[in-house]
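quick one: magnesium ion bound model?
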Amino acid sequence: MANPKLLILAGDGLGPEVMREARRVLDWLHKRRGISFDLEEDLVGGAAYEVHGVPLADSTMARAQAADAVLLGAVGGPKWDALPFALKPERGLLRLRKELQLFANLRPALCFDALAEASTLKYEVVAGLDVMIVRELTGGIYFGEPRGIETLPDGQRRGFNTQVYTTEEIRRVGRVAFELARKRKNRLCSMEKANVMESGVLWREEMTKLGAEEFPDVELSHMYADNGAMQLVRNPKQFDVIVTDNLFGDILSDEAGMLTGSLGMLPSASLGAADAQGRRKAMYEPVHGSAPDIAGRNVANPIATILSLSMALRYSFDLAREADRIEKAVSAVLAGGLRTADIMQPGKARVSTSTMGDAIVREMEQSLAAG
Ligand code: IPM
Ligand code: MG
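yep, here:
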């Protein structure tokens, strides 16, 4: 059987240096576990713009379509901030999401024991936290039409975007969330602003219907997204799976991320619809951005990218055992006291990007020796 195809798009800022550490994990899997991928590398974001004049070349898009999964680093940076919208690095990422139809974005907010002290929230609020946010990723105000900036007759300018969802867009992401809840604690909380937005009313109605029709065994609740934001810092452990739209999901997942100590820890998976063989198009990426301020200095935290690879093994390649191995290795390294700058705590050892990568691979090797 042919090796599965993995397309690596390291992108901008700290993307390349954190991706280098994920590559080492892949090398280890190849050498020590006989797990091989057909790896391809290509450009996205500002890096692509410099070479092709666009943030994602058509040839790269075609490679992504042909891949079994994409692993992406980060996009963006001040160098490209002044470009027109269509050429900004972020458009490269949005095009991948849209054209691969990756409508379900899974963002786990998991607090590693060793890091519960590092959160800006109290230990007892975050220790043991394990929440999964499912963010709709290809609809809503990110893509809704009409959009634009126009000049009014009186000379004022008017900026506008459209929040829009159809029944099917709501139901397909809802299904992913309900199914995940079933594999977890069987609780799903749907968030919108049905008190002020029609799209929120529809969202709530459709989630309710879907629950009654297909997932009566899952405990479904609803919350206004602003209350949800508050509840997430008040008592985050009340949640199991949260499902929400594109924009609220963008915001709430950053918030949930910070509960875990650092955005530098958070992976994500973006999944499309299952085909006849049950395979989904998929892209995996850390939740953090390109962090141009610390890029290139070997201080960034590679864990979010390594955990994104682990999600790829779990969701795209049916390699849950190896995914577990990676996650345990990360846990062990943290328990051993190593910290990159973003999660540094008193009394711990501050290490570089590459030293953190080394330590994780070493832990994986040890887990093998231990059987
Ligand atoms: C994210 C990011 C992106 C988004 C940006 C980079 C376009 O914030 O993945 O959460 O807004 O979706
Ligand atoms: Mg975001």
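The chain has a mean pLDDT of 96.
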